[in-house]
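Case study B.
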Amino acid sequence: MKPQVKIKTLSIDGRDIGAREDETILEVARENGIAIPTLCWLEGLSTVGACRLCMVEIEGSSRLLPACTTHVEEGMRIATDSERLRRYRRQIVELIFSERNHVCSVCVSNGHCELQSLAQALGIVRVHVPYRYPRLDVDASHPRFVVDHNRCILCTRCVRVCDEVEGAHTWDVSGRGVDARVITDLAQPWGASESCTGCGKCVHVCPTGALFEKGKSVAEMSKRRQFLPYLTLMREERR
Amino acid sequence: MPFIEEYQRIVALELEARKAITHRLLVCGASGCLSSGGDAVREALAAEVNARGLGREVQVKGVGCMGLCAAGPLVAVDPAGLLYQAVTPADAGDIVASLGSGPVTRLLCPTDTPFFTRQLKIVLENSGLIDPERIEDYVVSGGYQALIKVLTEMTPGEVIDQITRSGLRGRGGGGYPTGLKWTTVAKASGQVKYVICNADEGDPGAFMDRSVLESDPHRVLEGMALAGYAVGASHGYVYVRAEYPVAVRRLQTAIKQAKRLNLLGNAVLGTPYSFNVEVRLGAGAFVCGEETALMASIEGRQGTPRPRPPYPAEHGLWGCPTLINNVETFANVAWIVRRGGEAFAAIGSGKSRGTKVFALAGKIVNTGLIEVPMGTSLREIIEEIGGGVPEGRRCKAVQTGGPSGGCIPADHFDAPVDYESLRQLGSMMGSGGMIVMDDSSCMVDVARYFMDFCMTESCGKCVPCRVGTTHIHDLLARITAGKASEDDLRLLDELCELLQGTSLCGLGQSAPNPVLSTLRYFREEYAAHVGEHRCLAGACGATEEVTS
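Model:
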């Protein structure tokens, strides 16, 4: 028997909605078919609130709040799609594009990329900030997988899935600011990692072409994430 | 109670020992004076006293910060009330010889100037008077009396009530009412609670917390112990940056001494209250001053912030309710408990009560540490107490609040220094750093300097701060190089708004402040760089970096 859960009523974009008190704004919105863009959030992983794309406006508060980490409250009036929010989302995606070398036409994930689809959905046709064009490595030392730092957006989904679901904690982040990188073990080549089990979960949760399987050419790398909700569900049942 | 008798015995012994002493030579031993040779001066004085066989009557004592760092190393003569400046070991002979007769005039530092007469000291009341490495000194000047009073006479609720009445607000920058924070933690449910002292002072040009820890560490520990009693915590951490070795050493000495006298540790003074304090060293990341990043660092994880709520008051260190206050906040607590909240509330103006410590740095005559009542005007602090900018230059602006604050131009110097007024001017109180700039400083370059700091210190977790600070910095660098266009200025505005609106933690949200405040008050300098490729201050390309 589950402990009693209170129900809150609130409104999102003018629609009246009921929600359990332990739900976040993002979960409730998605249940009701209201799309809020995200990149770092993924069902089945912990939330970090890092990409800042899911920011929403809440009536009576001058501050924007991330939908992924904010829990619902009674009487909340939420706007998910104002002119201001759309502008911020476009700017954030543009910042991501400018940060590293996201060249869709030669990317293994072209056509299957969350960053690319998001840019299309937001109607981005050009990037207004200068590109930084950093020189970054590609690590192909692993027998089956490759990490291409040029495409990484530091969403840390790989770090979380490896730690929370696979239990290996091969991935982590080193460095600070724009110099931050995802690393395997203590910044060893991935192929030399002793903790990596080779399960490939990181590759399939990666939203872009930063992690991919060897042998895939341009536009051939599509990701399969069905395992994640399935594993989460099975674990919850066992509890 | 045996422990309180022990405490009284120490006070009596110490007072007895002082009777034999006719003169005391107090030598500043805080980082400022140590860096200009204060240690050597103390050794020379001690050697001189011994050589003359005056070891019984004349005491040479290392004390904490005396405030006027610009004139260091400083030596005070007690009870003559003299202050000597820029003392060298070679002066030891003259100083010791002069005891009992006239002063050594060539070394005299006038103490009737506004720098000394206009200050009001609560946090710094013992600084420069007591030896920070001796608990006896602190105890004789009334130390730990507040703790004894609270443990024997007051309930936790009464302690919080006094803090609430005092109107004390967080001295680390945000200005959150301390009493309210304590109430929240006290009411939070949980068997285990923590008290954290944030001593991760990182603003360029700020050294208030360092000085308090170096000059009077027991004051901070007593404040923490009082807080622990009030909120129901039995464990405390001081998170101090490893770049403050002197502060760390004195703090650790102080913890050991307090434990030996049973003023900290298990069963404090024989009561059921226990309070253990540990020191944790920061590895130098500015973002670790943000409370959630600080707690992650204490837990041994990477120091990156997490979204709030939940706030530390309900979900803090290891998931337990946690009280986090700044060094200076804790340093006020014992005074408030001893004298009552009303006495503290009687000082200050508006919603800002009590005093505030400021570190004066940059182009100012009296570089150093001061404590003034809240509501003192910027003009009084900079021109009178600080002595204004050095001869031949015109004061242009003051930067308050570090990389999260802003630049206030000289024609707004009549504004009182309190939380609300500074915010209205587009800056903030911050932790108390004040960097004074004269007309040789280019304000665009100042903004670029602070953005460079934020860019380097951004943890990289959220996109707007990680990438945004880099772009803003690059834009500012383009402007100072005279290569920017009107479009770049527009982009600068847009990016600043984005960072304020969407960044995860305070670092990113407030990073645009130095840019926005200089855009607001010195737009003509930006325009000259962009339109005429000219720097009005003639400084670009050769800006002095501010050092603390």
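The longest strand of chain B covers residues 355-362. The remaining cases will be described in the next quarterly update.
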